[in-house]
Amino acid sequence: MWVSQLWTYPVKSMVGVTADSVSMSPLGIVGDRHWAIRDNERGGIRGAKKIGELMQFAARPAADSSLSVIITLPNGEEVHSDDAQVDAVLSTALGRSVSLESLPSDGELEHFRRGPSDSTDVMTELRGIFGRTEEEPLPDFSVFPPEVSEFESPPGTHHDCWPLMVMTTSASDALRVALPDSVIDILRFRPSIVIDTPGETGHPEFLWKGRTGQLGSAVVEFLDPCPRCVMITRRINDSIPEDRAILRHVVRDLNQAVGVYARIVTPGKVSVGDTLTFL
């Protein structure tokens, strides 16, 4: 098994970029989700669970090793994070008042605190976030870090939960077989690392929970399978349309998960082509 793709997402919930190699710190891939969108109307950092159109935007570093980014809007126009009008441009494109914010250098907790819910009914709110019908179960929330009940992301990061999401080529192949009428594109699932798993079928990463693995000079610990939310149904572009059938399959047939969470045990560098060796 070896690393076939590495992804970073400079802006939370926007389409990211592939990389030949990445550096991993204890908090995740360096530069990953350095930026996020704040909803100035509702309050709080918001991703595509709430603002689905964010998945139609893309972001890339403005230069090698730069934390500044260039954002491509759905109409193809671009705006630089250093542009004084960036918030106005994004607000116009999204049809709501938003601000582009970086991770605070001082780790200020208020930056990460959750904004108010969109519904006063807890179950309605959760079903909206996770894209569940009334008949479908919600995820097991014990797999999430406890701090995400209070904060939009673990303080110090813009990750939803854990710093890495690992997916296999076998999983993508299995989804294509199960959903022949759907567009199964890696952009829907937003992995940090894609592992090529020759000879495997189905979703082998589900069996990695509790194991540690060497990737390049880094060591990661595999955690729980990743419960999926409404984001995997979102429209990204004309070739990747909105599709609720994908989530119905994941909830019904895959115990609600695609891919597996992981955290960094030993920081280091990971490159495409590196083998995955279980320790």
SSE blueprint:
Elements: E1 2-8, E2 17-18, E3 21-25, E4 28-29, E5 35-39, E6 45-46, E7 58-61, E8 69-72, E9 78-80, H1 86-94, E10 98-102, H2 122-130, E11 164-168, H3 169-178, H4 186-189, E12 193-196, E13 212-215, E14 218-227, H5 244-253, E15 257-266, E16 268-271, E17 276-278
Parallel strand pairs: 11-12
Antiparallel strand pairs: 1-2, 1-12, 3-4, 3-16, 5-6, 5-10, 7-8, 8-9, 11-15, 13-14, 13-17, 14-15
Describe this structure in words.
Helices cover 15% and strands 28% of the residues. Strand 7 and strand 8 form a beta hairpin. The two termini are 14 Å apart. It is globular, with a radius of gyration of 18 Å. It has five helices and 17 strands. The mean pLDDT is 96. The chain has 279 residues and is an alpha+beta fold. An eight-stranded mixed β-sheet has the order 2-1-12-11-15-14-13-17. A three-stranded antiparallel β-sheet has the order 4-3-16, with no helix packed on it. The protein has a three-stranded antiparallel β-sheet with strand order 6-5-10, with helices on one face. The chain has one domain (2-278): M1 Pyruvate Kinase, Domain 3 (Beta Barrel). The longest helix has 10 residues, at 169-178.
Side-by-side strand order of the widest sheet? 2-1-12-11-15-14-13-17
Query: The CATH topology, please?
Result: M1 Pyruvate Kinase, Domain 3
Coarse morphology = globular
The computed structural class is alpha+beta
Return the CATH architecture. Answer: Beta Barrel
Number of domains: 1
Short note summarizing the structure:
The chain is of the alpha+beta class.
Features:
eight-stranded mixed β-sheet; three-stranded antiparallel β-sheet; M1 Pyruvate Kinase, Domain 3; 5 helices; 279 residues
